[in-house]
Structure formats: structure tokens, C-alpha cells
Amino acid sequence: MHAHRVLGATALLVLAALAVPAAYAATGTARYTVTDLGALGTGDFSVATAVNNAGQVVGYSNPTATTTHAFRWSNGTLTDLGTNPGGGFSRANAINNAGQVAGTADRIPGGFGYPVRWSAGNVITDLGGPVTNALGVGNGIDPAGRVVGGQRPNSSEGNPLGTLYQVDGTRVDLGANLGPATGINAVGQVVGSPAYIWRNGTVRFLPGFPGTGSTAANAISISGQVVGWAGAGLSQIAVRWQGTNPVSLGAIDGIMRNQANAVNAAGQIVGTADPQCVPCPAPRAWLWQAGTMTALDTLIPAGSGWTLQQANGINDRGQIVGAGVHNGHMRAYLLTPVFSATVNFQPAGAPRPVGYLADTGAAFGPRSGGRTYGWNVDNSANARDRNASGSADQRYDTLNHLQKPGGARQWELAVPNGRYLVHVVAGDPSTTDSVYRITVEGQLAVSGTPDATRHWIEGTMAVTVSDGRLTVTNGTGAVNNKIDYIDVISG
Over the stretch 288-300, which tens digit does the pLDDT of each residue have? Predict the structure, then answer.
């Protein structure tokens, strides 16, 4: 991909920004705080593209008036990731929980772009191979560091095709009819356009709406939830695929071009409604959860001065990144929920997942990380770490029991009274001898029986807490109940 083509898209966004007279007004109590991530060098422009569970953000900015470089933001510090040796352009598109970054960089200023990977220590590796004509892009990265994107075949002048790059840099072409890949999850499912899921050489195409053919899959969650867009007449509709069918997520301000860009483990989806014309109304960033699409401008503090135009990434803690107009400049932002708690149930001493607090079975009380949570009685003897090869990650490999003789039956988390989105996962990679029924605030959140093809059952629901404690316990009919992890996000 030519660097100037990316800059052209950026210029279009800036022109749209200039048409915005003022920030949209927030309504009610703010659900997020907003952080301006700044810009590199002497630049005044930045866009955030992705965020991992550690809260590290990547994207791109202009360190000078004529250059664009990839950046990493972490704990208040913005770092220029640089370019390939001799290059002038780079862009970061994805980051995994280990801090490895996927993106694109040229080799000479103004030349073709190629897929690249940065290490956690910011060392760049060009994955594009020796053929100059084989331009490409790196769009996603899995926990092991495998990068997905698109690249031209060596002998082609056509568009890039879907490609996966192994940890050692070996290139795997996904198939002749598959466009660039846009995302990959922890179990190796790859998505791209036209909307498809690829895994280990097997491809499944995702349909569009009846009578239309245009589709794009932009992201996939750890549980396999795919989001993107599907055409319908003159409209481009943000969708999630439910089974084999696209389901509309709704619209913002009647804007006809809308797409979902990212999805987290809890099923929260973020995206952008963009008229894609000049002059036109400015794009708007949005969040979809529990069946409702909401403009992000309305969820931040009133008077913040922000107009949020892109929502490009979301992590499992509910943090959202993108770009918006702030004090007259297009800037990368990080939204952080006013309250969130992500807790993994595990034995003491087991590795703790990035971005998660560890519950090791202790009775209710204050914990590190400033949260208060725990069981009605000590339950540490019933925590397990399976070390099973079939677990998607550590969250799916550890668990605690809710029905062991003499063990705990109830777990609670201290929270401010209010509304919360709660995501609960139950399962065991080693056995299927359970019937999972877990309630949150008295409402059934998880319900299902595992089998050889589905070891984990999960659910997401909105609940209201009025007594200062979010309560999790066994539902009627549960047998050998277990809980793996829980995500609690205000709103």
C-alpha cells in the first residue's frame, strides 16, 4: 500500500473534522473518562487504532508536517515506533497482550508499504519478503505474535490477498479469492473481506443481506463473534454475524455508511458512522452493547471539548480508542470506563492474565488493585489450573468451583450502586461433567451444558446493583458449577 494513499484518507477525515462546529453534548452521568494521547514530535495529528488488555495503545501520528509514524502509548508516554531502515512512513494497526505490534511501513519514502511487526521492545521486522512489487499490510496479531494482513503475490500487479505470517516470518497465503485479513483471535480464526473466517486452511464465507453481495468482516472476538459491515442498497450497515446471518447493529443520525471495527470478549462493539463525503456531516464514533447503539460523544463528561469521530478498538476491560477533534486538532483518544473490574478465578501462583485481577479463592475482603471481592467462605482449595492445550488463553484454563462440599456458593464484588454490563464465562477444558447455571444479581447470566465440541458456556447481561455488592451465585439446576472469569463494566 502506498503511504500517500493512507495520507489521502487522513486528509479526508481532517476536512470532515473542520465542518464540526462544536462538540456533541454528553447526556446524563458520564460513563467514561477521556484521555488525549497527544501527537509525536511537532505534529498535531494522531489516530489510535487498537488497545490491548494492559491499556497500551497503538496508532499513527505526524512527527513532522510531511511524515507519518506508528506510535505506542503506555502509561502516559507516547513512543515513536519508527520505520523500516531507510523508510519514511509507518502505521501501527494492532497490538497483542504481550506488547507486539502489527502494522505497515515503507522501505523508501513514498514507496510501497509492507507488513511489519514490532517487538515489545519496539524493534521492527519487515515481513514483506524480497520482492519489491509484493506490497502489503499488517492488520492483526495473535497472542503468539502471528501477523495477518494482505500482500500481493510476487508476480502480480493486483490487489493484496489474505496472508498470515508465522512467528518466524514464513508467509501463508490464505486463498486466491480472499482479500486482506483484518483480524485474528487467540484460537487462530482469521477474518477479512469479502466476509470470511479462515482457520487452518478451511474457509467459511459469511453471507450478506438478501439481494446484496458486499460484506466485510473487520474483527473477531476470542469466542468467535464476528463484526463488520454488509451492504443493503445504497447503505453500508454495521453488523455482527449471529450464526450464519448478518444482524444490523443500528444507525447513528441516519448516516448511511456505518461499520463495526472491533469487538471484545463481553460482546461490546465499537465502530464509526461516516458519510465519506466532503462537505458532509462529520463521522461519529459509537458503542453497541446489550442491543443498543450509542454515540460515544454522549457518554463522556459534558464540556470536555471532544467530538469523537472514530472508534477503532476496544479491550476486554472496556477501554475504547479512536480519534476525534479536540481543541481544533484530530487527536487519538483513550476512553476508560468510570468503573471496571476484570477478575480471573485461579489458584494462587498461577500466571495472571494481562489486565486481570486474580481471585484465588479467599473470602470477601480488600484485594490488591483497589478492589474488594471474594467468596462467602474460603474457597481456595477448589481453584484449578488445568494447563490444557485446548484452552484459548489462561482465562479459559483456570477456574473455581461453586458447588464443592463445604466450599463456597457465592462470590461478590464491591461496586458503586448503578448499572453494569457483566460478562461471565463458565467451563473446564478437561471435563464436561457439568450443567452450568450462574446468576448475577438474581438474573440467569450463564445457562448451558458443555459437550466435547463446546467446553465453555458464557453470557453477557446488564444488571442494576442497589446494595453496593454485585452478587454471583448458582442458578437453579446447576450441577458441578464452575466459573472461569468475569468482566464487570459500568454502564
Answer: 999 999 999 999 9
Q: How far are the Cα atoms of 20, 71, 112, 181 from residue 118, in angstroms, in the given order?
A: 35, 11, 18, 18
Beta bridge partners of 51: 57
The class level of CATH for 340-490 reads mainly beta
Q: Which CATH architecture describes the domain 3-337?
A: 6 Propeller (2.120)
pLDDT tens, position by position, 357-407:
999 999 999 998 999 999 999 999 999 999 999 999 999 999 999 999 999
Domain borders along the chain are 3-337, 340-490
Bridge partner residues of 385 (DSSP): 398
Pick from 96-105, 209-218, 438-447: least confident: 209-218
Beta strands in 200-305 (DSSP E): 202-205, 215-220, 226-232, 235-242, 245-248, 258-263, 269-273, 284-289, 292-295
Task: Single out the residue of 274, 288, 300 nearest to residue 23, CA to CA.
Answer: 300
Helix, strand counts (H, E) of the chain: 2, 42
CA atoms within 13 A on the CB side of 427: 26
- Cβ within 8 Å of residue 131, ≥6 positions away: 154
How far, in Å, are 183, 221, 229, 345, 422 from residue 262 at the CA level?
Answer: 9, 8, 11, 26, 18
Span 293-310, average pLDDT: 97
